[in-house]
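Structure (tokenized):
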């Protein structure tokens, strides 16, 4: 039976500075990392507050970076982004504030582009199947049902005008 060597609080602090230094982290994620190093709650709380004081951890900055990355790179919708941030235990205030960083014009353009790409990839499908599969795809991406319906209606109108 092997025992895992418990790290000292100073070693843990150095590891966490590196952990938070190369990528924005949520408080929850950092807390879990500290527990995985074998530290006790009292030490974890002290180290978390120290990381916050030294600006290694900043939930607002994390939330904005998270929203930006998930929208611009992964092209997720607001619903999925919000759900994921709730899983990271980000405060609702920071979620709301970060969501405001999404430009509405970019959001609608991304939704329309994804809808058109999916729609065009289903050319061999019947109309209703095409509509259902496109809607399902966009719902999985986390876009709002009303916006999805509008995007599909726009595609339908464009195809009628051709």
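Design, position by position:
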């Amino acid at each position: 039976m092997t025992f895992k060597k418990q790290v000292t609080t100073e070693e843990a602090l150095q590891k966490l500075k590196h952990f938070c230094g190369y990528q924005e982290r949520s408080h929850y994620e950092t807390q879990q990392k500290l527990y995985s190093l074998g530290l006790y709650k009292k030490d974890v709380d002290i180290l978390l507050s120290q990381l916050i004081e030294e600006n290694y951890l900043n939930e607002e900055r994390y939330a904005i970076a998270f929203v930006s990355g998930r929208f611009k790179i992964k092209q997720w919708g607001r619903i999925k982004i919000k759900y994921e941030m709730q899983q990271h235990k980000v405060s609702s205030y920071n979620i709301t504030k970060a969501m405001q960083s999404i430009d509405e014009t970019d959001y609608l353009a991304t939704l329309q582009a994804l809808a058109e790409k999916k729609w065009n990839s289903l050319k061999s499908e019947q109309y209703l199947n095409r509509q259902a599969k496109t809607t399902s795809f966009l719902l999985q991406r986390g876009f709002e049902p009303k916006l999805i319906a509008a995007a599909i209606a726009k595609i339908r109108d464009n195809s009628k005008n051709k």
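Reviewer-requested clarification: The chain has three domains: 9-53, 59-99, 104-161. The CA atoms of residues 16 and 30 lie 8 Å apart.
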